[in-house]
């Protein structure tokens, strides 16, 4: 079977399995094949001590799950699926927040659980792990801002610990500041501070308030006439 035909087969098989599962836990040959692959990949990752190397390996492994994920998202009706949820988390781990978002939309729509080994909800994991990725970016990097805005909307009604939500608002503040959107940045920094007074945005708030004040009260032109 050619690579193209194989990918098509994987996607169609995953879609059929998702359709057959309905809103019951995923089952069927396509899922069990991916579940077995996930088990082997997880064992491989567990044997690696370096976090940096783990991320490299996850990036190598993720394409193997792409057709399965696409098939499930095409036809899924909310079946609990540990493979799908693990791929979402790996996407976030490697910094591919945009790649994680289609799964996140599906997971939040159907309120999927991340799995027994996780103590946080899907929404809390999505918010905290994505915010951590964004907070690690340089100050002038706004590349994750649009994804964070969507994550904020997706999880707006979800219950989670305030410090987790505070991280997201700090990351949103950083992104808006990088774009020069100071008013929006200030709003998010202030919300982050309300949720967690140790989130580390007090100096950011002070600086933005000064910058906004300067914009609103420009210095008079003192250059000589003529």
Overview of this protein structure:
With 226 residues, the protein is an all-alpha fold. The protein folds into 2 domains: 118 residues, no CATH class; 95 residues, Serine Threonine Protein Phosphatase 5, Tetratricopeptide repeat (Alpha Horseshoe), CATH 1.25.40. The chain contains 11 helices and no strands. Helix 5 runs antiparallel to helix 6, helix 9 runs antiparallel to helix 10 and helix 10 packs antiparallel against helix 11. The longest helix is centred in the first third of the chain and has 19 residues. It starts with a helix and ends in a 10-residue tail after the last helix.
Summarize the structure.
Residues 216-226 have a biased composition (Polar residues). With 226 residues, the protein is mainly alpha-helical. It has helices at 3-21, 29-46, 51-61, 66-75, 82-93, 97-110, 122-135, 145-154, 162-178, 182-195, 202-216.
